[in-house]
Design a protein that fits this description.
about 475 residues; mainly beta; 22-stranded antiparallel sheet; two-stranded antiparallel sheet; 26 strands
Length: about 475
Amino acid sequence: SGEWKNVSYFLYSKYADERGYRQNSDVLAKDFNGRLGYKFSEKMSAGLDFGWHEDSYDLPGGLTRAEIAATSRRDSTNPADVADTEDRFMKLSFDVTPWPEDIYLGRFVVDLHARKRDVFDSFSGWDTNRGIRTLGVTPKYIFDHTVFNREVNFVTGIDYYDTENDIVGSGSNTDDLTISKNEFGVYSFLEAEIFPKLFANGGTRFHKADYAFSQRNVAVDEKRHPDEWVSMGGVKYEYGKGSTLHANAQQTFRFLATDEWYSTYSGLNTDLRQQTGIQYEAGIKHNFNDIALISVTPYWMVNDNEIFFDPTNGFFGSNSNYDKTHRVGVEAGSNVDANHFLKFGFLDKLDVFANYTYQDARFAKGANDGKEIPMTPHHQASSGVTAKFMKNYNLSLTGKYTGSRFAINDTFNVTPPAKPYYSMDMRLAYERDVMEIYLNVNNILNEKYSPYVVKSTGSTAKDEFPAPETNFTAGVNLKF
């Protein structure tokens, strides 16, 4: 990356050939991204973002406890399942401030988007190709300035995207269809300083989508036209340096992506509904003289027609809607400059951090009313320490805890929850000039755990997806 006269540039490339922890879990990934910028004048600039990603990866699938006991955690019962992706994107941006030098009335930003994504997957001879093309334009107006010595931030704009998804099966899959989505949205958001250090914000968005489903192998021709109008509002009070109180409420929505209407095994499902909801949040962040920072944020969320993968829908399952869900929780975090108190002479920095999340996520309607939503633990926590010593050495030690949670698909909570687990990682690095040499030790405690557990659709049997035991990564970085 760098600059030369009026030109700025950034280029990034990555090639990763990974041998997976389990059988049939190898991944080959290639990435190239870049950005070119040109500044015509103080009032006008343009930028071109572009990227290309390609991968091919094996899919090991889950293992039952009996299979793990008979073979090992590293085995796979799906040696032929594979997938690959090719993704290309481009964004052309223009940033214009069309006013005289002594006047500020905001600026205009226009982004033009283009993306082409091709995906192939093969499960037990059921092969599916998806070709997704997206074009978009997103103009917006931004005002970020002071008015009568009060800070004012305002943005309004339009989002327009046109997406077409061609899905063609092979092998045991005979599907041939096209799902298109034409979406339009208009929005505005304003944050203003009402009194010194007291800010109010509010925003609104109208969004509509036109879906068209054209299936050729079974002659389906249908359309859907959902639309939503949502709003939000909140307040923030900066009562001290780096210290704030805030509260806000906002309506939410999520329209389905074109590939969410379709499942390889179950086919097209045009009965799905768009997800809507509302969430409330309040919190405090307090800065203790730049020595410690503590934050606490409780929240409450309600979703209608939440989109999820339903294993009982169709032969092998497909996306469906929960009737209504509730989530109540609190997030807390802290960061402390421990060296301020300990004053170790050989330490340049010693920071200690801790984060904790409590969440109660339940169904609020339907056949499983009152049951817990799968894979949502009540308790999650992380803590650690980062240190810099002898000028050139950096050390970090991080631990993560995930509490018990019901398995994916266990919407009626009929099986015992998956066991909680704790993992710890360490990183040691030596930095000098442009070079960094590092060693990572992951899962130091050699914890044997499965971050994902999936219940069978027809029984109480469960598949686990084992995580790697203790493993090491070493390398060298050069920075220019």
